[in-house]
Every structure is written in structure tokens, then in C-alpha cells.
Specification:
- The protein has 290 residues and is an alpha/beta fold.
- The chain has a single domain (6-278), classed as Aldehyde Dehydrogenase, Chain A, domain 2 (3-Layer(aba) Sandwich), CATH 3.40.309.
- It has helices at residues 38-51, 74-92, 113-125, 145-152, 188-191, 207-215, 230-239, 275-278, and strands spanning 6-11, 31-33, 54-56, 62-67, 105-109, 161-164, 178-180, 198-204, 222-225, 244-247.
- Strands 1, 4, 5, 6, 7 and 8 form a 6-stranded mixed β-sheet that branches.
Length: 290
């Protein structure tokens, strides 16, 4: 799956994320856990229904980050925006965006949009792209030429590129970190899981609109909420339909907590105590004593 829906960021904002990988039709196990693209997911579900296997986990995602406007405390609001902008690139460009939980959609309160974009640009341009074996590299290449072409298809000649980072010109399937803004609500870059180093930035005008925008997706795996208002963080977290949310961070997976998505971003949960249920079949046995 790919990096608010399966990956979303909301700054003053929420970010959500997603995943993608192969899924075969093997039947050795009674339960399966996998990540897949939409077409692969449909086929996997068809096969699972035919063989009645249990299914768990992330299928596809479009992560988001949400940045909320904290006007009641200007000092904290400034800190929120600075931290959100500084960390947002790594929430989506880590592993070149080839991440189930990548926050590939950033929703920002309109009142702080200009400030956020001014801070995001140097952060994006500062991402060190290069040899993944080098100690100072922060982002490597994409997995294949075909996938690079797929990612590039979302950034066509008329795409609203706000700014980009840099990438090597030598051998390798390189693609520069790219920020698109403004984008239309029906733009494929906004609605689909890109699974590459491309992120969209979209403003919202209120908490309810932010939640509505975050939920306007068939996916819901992972996301982030940035705000200094704890009450707001809890309200937004309750309202956003996603399986994993972080407040003022971009954490998604911990082995001791359940991991999984809502809607088309997965069935069941892996990790944590809930994982046992996903891989357990309940059986009733009646014994007659007469």
C-alpha cells in the first residue's frame, strides 16, 4: 500500500497512510496476513472466500496528516507548525514513500497554510536522497523503472508542483520528493495511493471539515494529528475513520499494540493482544451425556 488515507496528516492538521505488495494464492495456512494493491486485494478476497481463509491486515491506504490551528496559544501554535513542517517529509518520503502508513495527504488549517508551506519547502529540499547504504542518506530510490513511471504519472506536465527536492541523476530508479498544491478533491494524486515520494497539501476551514475531508476516502490505515489542544486531538481522533492515529508524531506500528485499518485498508488486526483473535477460529463442541 502507499504513503489523511491510507496516510493523512492534519496540521492545526491530520495525515493518513496506506500499503501495497504482492499476495499469492497459496493455501498452506489456514489464515493469511498480507498487504496488496486494490486489484490484488479484490482477487485475494475472491480467493479467500473460495477457500474460506481468515484474512487480516492492511490492504491499501492513503495516509493523512492534519494540522489544526491553535490560535488560543500562539507560542504553542508556532511550535506545532514548525514541528509538523519539519517532520512531515519523513512521514511520507521515508522508504521513498513505499510505505503502507505513508502520510501522503496533508490537511492544513487555512489560517496557517502559508506559514506551514514556507516551513515545509526547506524541509523537503533538505531531504538527503542517495545511496541507501550511505549513513547520511534519508531516502533511496524506487523499487523499479515501472514503479517510477507509475509514480511519475501522478505528476503530469500540468500538475500543480509547489516545490520539489532533489535526486541523483545516475543509475537507479530515482524520483525527487515532490509536493503538490493546490490539488482538486477529485485529483488522482489526492484520492489514490501513490506509493511514492509525492504528497499533496490541502487547506481546511474548520475541525468538522477536516474530519469530513479525512473520511472522504475508501481507505483508513494510519494518520497523524498535530495540535496543542488535547481536547481537539481526542475529538478529531474519534471522528477520523482510521485504524492507527498519532498525535504530534508519526508513529504507526508497535508490536505490543494492535495494527490494522478501517474500510478497504484491512480486515482484522495484527500485533498486540488482538492479533490472537485474528488468527483464531472458535469452535463449539456439544457432548451428549445420555
Amino acid at each position: 500500500m502507499r504513503r489523511i488515507l491510507t496516510g493523512l496528516l492534519v496540521v492545526g492538521l491530520v495525515v493518513l497512510g496506506g500499503c501495497a505488495s504482492d499476495q499469492s494464492g497459496q493455501s498452506e495456512s489456514s489464515d493469511t496476513s498480507f498487504a496488496a494493491l486494490k486489484a490484488e486485494y479484490d482477487e485475494a478476497i475472491k480467493q479467500a472466500n473460495e477457500t474460506w481463509k481468515g484474512q487480516a491486515e492492511a490492504v491499501k491506504a492513503k495516509g493523512q496528516t492534519m494540522l489544526q490551528d491553535a490560535q488560543r496559544d500562539l507560542k504553542n501554535a508556532k511550535t506545532d507548525i514548525e514541528k509538523a513542517a519539519a517532520t512531515a517529509p519523513y512521514a511520507v518520503f521515508d522508504n521513498a514513500g513505499q510505505d503502507c502508513c505513508a502520510r501522503s495527504r496533508i490537511l492544513v488549517a487555512a489560517s496557517v497554510l502559508d506559514k506551514f508551506m514556507a516551513l515545509l519547502e526547506p524541509a523537503v529540499q533538505g531531504v538527503r536522497v542517495g545511496d541507501p547504504t550511505a549513513a547520511d542518506t534519508e531516502m533511496g530510490p524506487l523499487i523499479s523503472a515501472a514503479h517510477r513511471a507509475h509514480v511519475a504519472s501522478y505528476v503530469h506536465a500540468d500538475a500543480p508542483v509547489a516545490f520539489r527536492g532533489s535526486a541523483p541523476q545516475g543509475p537507479g530508479y530515482w524520483y525527487p520528493p515532490t509536493v503538490l498544491a493546490p490539488v482538486a478533491a477529485d485529483s488522482p494524486a489526492y484520492t489514490e495511493e501513490i506509493f511514492g515520494p509525492v504528497v499533496t497539501v490541502t487547506p481546511f476551514t474548520g475541525e468538522d471539515e477536516a474530519i469530513s475531508m479525512a473520511n472522504d476516502s475508501p481507505y483508513g490505515l494510519s494518520g497523524s494529528i498535530w495540535t496543542s489542544n488535547v481536547g481537539r486531538a481526542i475529538r478529531v481522533a474519534r471522528g477520523v475513520e482510521t485504524g492507527n492515529l498519532s498525535v504530534n508524531s508519526h508513529s504507526s506500528v508497535r508490536y505490543w499494540t494492535p495494527f490494522g485499518g478501517f474500510k478497504q485498508s484491512g480486515l482484522g488486526r495484527e500485533l498486540g493482544p488482538d492479533a490472537v483473535d485474528a488468527f483464531t477460529e472458535i469452535k463449539n463442541v456439544f457432548i451428549a451425556t445420555e
